[in-house]
Amino acid sequence: MDSIIISPELPPNDVLLLRNLSEDIQRCQQNTGPSTKSSAKKSSGKTVNNESSASGQEATNGTIGNHVLASRDESDLTSMRAVNDPTHKDFEPSVFCTVDFRDLSSRLHPVIYKHILLPYVKWAQNVARHPSDVIMVTHLILYFTTSVPSAIWLYYHFTYIHGFIHFIMQVYYVGTYTLMMHQHIHGGGVLRKTSWVHLFDITFPYITDPLMGHTWNSYYYHHVKHHHVEGNGPNDLSSTIRYQRDNIWHFLHYVGRFYVLIWLDLPIYFLRNDRPTFALKTAFWELSNYAVILTLFIINSRPTTFVFLLPLMLLRAGLMIGNWGQHALVDADEPDSDYRSSITLIDVPSNRYCFNDGYHTSHHLNPRRHWREHPVHFLANKGTYSAEHALVFHNIDYLEITVRLLLRDYAHLARCLVPIGERQIRLTMEQRADMLRRCTRRFTEDEITEKFAVAAKEKAKVK
């Protein structure tokens, strides 16, 4: 029995998508045998049974194709697109991570809503790059009214209590901030390209990045100019394919190498690929950031430890733990496919608090896709995702996926899987666990040469 848990904390489009996929599962099971007719979905803690069925349903590209489902999908897509379309009456800007715009009118006092929130939203929409991205302005205001003054005060008057509170605050901020910067580096900023706004958009990362554990510009060069170019392939420094992805020692080697050697490995990678300018820029920004932190440590070690060193140490580990979860499940037959080397999560932490980071396959297919368009893309291309046997999970984030893999708890991962297409839906829980286990197998060098050489030839033909 498939139990899809639809958390009330999910963003509205995630709820719509997850219900859509849940109905596909139910209809498919109802048409493939009586033993599966008791499947149910859970919504906001309640179980909802759907015993209705339609006759004459057939699988088309892995989805159940008939005019009823096509009409439903189109209706869901229309609703999703309306929320994202600034010209539509149902458009909703994103203002805060924790609550949707549609709920603010009932949660705020009418005076605050009308005379403070709405004027703020109108002003912020003139500052943000996209009308929907009021949330970017909100978070920049948050960081420059909390993190920055707190860090300055620690250097002026240090106490250990303040130092610990400051660090805990940064730990709370870092996931959302990092994914905000993820939008920044892929889109060339998050604010409008006008006068002082664009100048601030360019300069603020040099202030806030080190406070969150990032070194200057390293995220851009590693993620945009390196990871998305290589796509978890054999030349990707953060590739998982040479590791057994449910082995703790392989995982520690993976994290440890990045932790200790990325400052050297990334410039060498660019030199090896005949990009000396990138190599020099990467080395300059990384080493200059280290030099500044070292200088500040020599001058005043205690605040520097809490303001810069601890965030740096935490983020370096967090980035690789997250990347392991994003790319640990790789198809043995087509490891070069974006559909089969990355996954999709419909979960609360990744999508509500981290700008739809759960839609990692969609992001790899188009790195410049706006974060609010990921659920729309998935539903519009559900048939392709299904035909490509993509992996979709719910009620679990990347960090927990990494932990569950290292514990080899495939039964839990199987329960979190949202099967798409008849092939996956017909699998028992044990078969799903076995399928996921096969996706963590380490690739030999011969396999890497064979499979990625074929992929390279195919790409060359296309070009």
List the topology elements.
Blueprint: E1 3-6, H1 12-30, E2 40-43, E3 46-49, E4 58-60, E5 63-65, H2 67-84, H3 101-107, H4 110-125, H5 134-145, H6 147-156, H7 160-187, H8 195-212, H9 218-230, H10 248-272, H11 276-299, H12 301-327, H13 338-341, E6 343-346, H14 348-352, H15 360-365, H16 374-380, H17 382-387, E7 391-394, H18 398-406, H19 410-416, H20 421-425, H21 429-438, H22 445-462
Parallel strand pairs: 1-2, 6-7
Antiparallel strand pairs: 2-3, 4-5
Helix pairs in contact: 1-2, 2-16, 5-6, 6-7, 7-12, 10-11, 10-12, 11-12, 12-18, 19-21
Question: Any overview of this molecule?
Answer:
- With 463 residues, the chain is mainly α.
- Among the domains are: 3-87 and 335-438, no CATH class; 93-212, no CATH class.
- It is built from 22 helices and seven strands.
- It has helices at 12-30, 67-84, 101-107, 110-125, 134-145, 147-156, 160-187, 195-212, 218-230, 248-272, 276-299, 301-327, 338-341, 348-352, 360-365, 374-380, 382-387, 398-406, 410-416, 421-425, 429-438, 445-462, and strands at residues 3-6, 40-43, 46-49, 58-60, 63-65, 343-346, 391-394.
- The strands form three sheets. Strands 1-2-3 form a three-stranded mixed sheet, with helices on one face. A two-stranded antiparallel sheet has the order 4-5. A two-stranded parallel ribbon has the order 6-7.
- Strand 2 (40-43) and strand 3 form a beta hairpin.
- Helix 6 (147-156) packs antiparallel against helix 7 (160-187) and helix 11 packs antiparallel against helix 12.
- The protein is globular and about 70 Å long.
- The two termini are 46 Å apart.
- The model is unreliable at 34-64 (pLDDT under 50).
